[in-house]
Amino acid sequence: MTDMEAPAYEPTPSQTVGPFFGHALPYAEGPEVVPGWHPDAITVRGRVLDGAGEPVPDALIEIWQADGDGRVPSGEGGLRRAGHGFSGFGRCGTDPAGRYWFRTVRPGAVGEDAPYIAVLVFARGLLKPVRTRLYFPQDAAAHATDPLLSAVPAERRPTLVAVAEDDRTYRFDIHLQGERETVFLGI
Description:
Keywords: Dioxygenase, Oxidoreductase
Number of helices: 2
Domain Intradiol ring-cleavage dioxygenases: 40-178
CATH architecture: Sandwich
Family: Belongs to the intradiol ring-cleavage dioxygenase family.
Radius of gyration: 19 Å
GO molecular function: protocatechuate 3,4-dioxygenase activity
Distance between the termini: 42 Å
Strand content: 25-35%
InterPro entries: Intradiol_dOase_C, Intradiol_dOase_core, Intradiol_RC_Dioxygenase, Protocat_dOase_a
Order of helices and strands: EEEEEEHHEEE
């Protein structure tokens, strides 16, 4: 190589993130989008599972949503709420069994979309978080006209709809791969 030739650089291989989610990102109030005494509080819970159906114990789940009237919070928020209000944002790390939970409210519809909660999953083996949506079974009529759900093959749509366990508890398991893989959204 002469002094005028630039050296040939090879790109380094991609690396995955973590697992480091147990430090600093989760916080005590993270799963509480509304306080427990809120009259419209519901619980959304589930598990994050890998392609073999095994729990992912070090995943981090974030949710973003509108309130019950379909309003998206636009004012100042905070990781630590003053015991009242609705933030529209929650964060929960999974436990050793891959479980997570959130206390929130059922969102109202925004625009033409059926009511939904936006879900981001950060986990080992992922270069970037994967995005999906959680829809509610009570909104089946709105699901028929939702622009995103309409683009998903009918046999895959159930992976985006939570299961009602009772009138205030919903289960939404997230399968990262495999036969039951949750539908994930592009950018």
